[in-house]
Structures are given as structure tokens and as C-alpha cells.
Amino acid sequence: MLIDNENNKKDKTILLTTNNIQHYQQQLDDYNINDYKISFANWNDILTITNYSNDENQNNHLDPEFVVLDISTMTVEDTNRQISTTILTRIEDIKRILPKKRMFFILPSESMIKSFLSMKICKQEDIRLHPFSVFDLLDLISITNKKERLQRLHLHDHCMETYSHSDDKIKDAIKFLEIGIRNNEVTLILLDNDINLSDFESLIALHNMDISKLQKEGLLKIVYSEDWYLTFNQKNNTNNTHNNNIATIDIEQTYKKFFDLEDRVTKIEGKNGLRIFGMMDCFFKYGLVDEIVDYDCIRPPIFRKPILSICVYSDTHIKQLSENQIRRLMLTHKKVGFN
To answer: Domain 147-338 is of which CATH architecture?
Structure first.
């Protein structure tokens, strides 16, 4: 049985082979994930389905961008005997039918990794472990499409990205800026406080970008996130450190700042639009978890004005959210990426 979550309206691009289709399909439905082309196949049907790729006359021609083989859902007898002959034969058949496709493998436990690698089935970087969720699947999509991911975003999109490492976040902020310069769009980068501004500017300069010129021309604006988003009310007049302040966000005023900036750069400065790379760590730093979810979910998935906004989260902070909060964020962003 092959299930295409796009109801066959789009070409299939990701194929997940698993004996637990319902688990993933339920997650896709719960989180309303419909911006990715994902198809599912049972292990018993995978060879029949993938054989279509060798026949150009078949209407059900399958040409996945990459394949995920969920070995953890094979029978208990198979997985307990490390790598069974049945599994090996099936993998080799799939590789023969789809020789140029990248494949990821979901193993049931760490104990199987060593034997799996010894058979030279794949590289360490292509292995994932059970439990595996639809969010892990989106992470694989981000990995395989990393070079093109930021290129596919456009003005009016309200997007969300999560990062495991600060270095990746910084690299994407710079790429985001480079695209904005080419498009004559103003880029507003809202930095986490743990990123040194001078170091960040030095990294931008290494990409042959003149920061002073960009700022003079109005194409680049850099502000710390907590200075942009938050207001601090002093508890007393003797100590003025943030640790002794109460942080709040005025949602209406924050939106006004964004929209006023967009009006200025498009109507007065003649730019094509405003792009925002906003790092959200400050909300978690000051215990404003509910506030950031409420703020982020008020904005629509698509802006009426020429604004492209990426809400940037650390994956350690995403793990602090409830399932309902994650679901709300997924529903209110046009595109969601995991890095």
C-alpha cells in the first residue's frame, strides 16, 4: 500500500518505507504538515512500488528525492537477529532499483549500528535511531535541501527554523543577508545576546560584504533581539541589571515597529521589501515561553505586506514546549525547517 499525503496532487519527493504508516500519517494530520511531498510504503510493497521507476510508461512513476527505510518496524525476529538476510536482500533490491537516491536508515537500537556499518550498507551520517517522528523526517528534508532551503523563501512568507548549533544559525543569517542584497531587500537581523556583535560583523566581512556600505545604503540592520522585542521594568532603583528586571513584550507595539520599518524601506527608501531573521532565545532566557508562542501565533502564515520573516529557535528551547504549543507554531508558519 502506498499512501501519498498530498493526495497525488504533487510529484512525490520523499519516500518513507515503514510498517507503521499510521504513526507518521497521524502526526502529519495533527500538525497540519502539508508543505512537503511525503509518500509512505509498507515494507511488503516497496519493491513493487519502486519498480515503477524503471518504467517511464507507468502513470504511477515514482522518483523520490530520497528514501527513508524504517528498519525498526520490521518484525521482532528480524531486528533481534541483528541484520537478517531478509532485510539485507530487501535493501540491496531497493538500492538496485533506485541507485542514485540517497537513503537514510532508522535502526531500532544503538547496538545494531556497529554491525550495520561493518556491512558497508551506509555511512554513519545516514543512520537514525528509533523512536523517529515526522519532525525527524522534516529534519532530513532540511539536510538534503540545505543549499536551496533559504532560496525557496519569498516575501510575504512567515517561516520558522530550529537549529541545533549556533554556528549554523549564524551561517544562515549571513546567507539570508546575501540573498536580500541581491533582491534589493532590507535585512533586519535580530541577534541572540550570546553572539558577539563584532565577531558576527567580522564573519559578514569574510563574505566580501562591506558592512558600513550596506548599513549606509539601508540594506542591513542588526539589533539584539531582547532590545527589539522586550521591555524591562525595574523592580527597584538600586540595581539596573536585566537579571533584576521584569521582562515583558508589548505585542501590538512590536508589530507596529516591524510594519513601520517595512513602510519606510519600501515607500521612502525604494527597497523591494523587508526580510527578518529573528532569533528567539531571549524569550526563553527571561521565562517568556507562553508569551513567545502567543506572539508568534498571532501573525499569519502569509503577510499582506512585502515582509519575509524567519522565527529562529534553538532546538533545546523547542523541547521545552508542550505538544499543543508546537502544534500551534507549526500551524501558523508557512514553512518549518529543522537544522
So the answer is: 3-Layer(aba) Sandwich (3.40)
